[in-house]
Amino acid sequence: MIPIVGGQLKVLCFGSEILEGDKTAFEVCEILKGELQGVEFVRCEDPFEILKQKGEVLVLDVVKGLKKVEFVPVIALKRKKMYTLHDLDLGFLLRLADSMQGEGPKIRVLGIPQGSKAEEVAEEVKRLLSSL
Question: Which fold is adopted by the domain 4-130?
Answer without folding.
Answer: Rossmann fold (3.40.50)
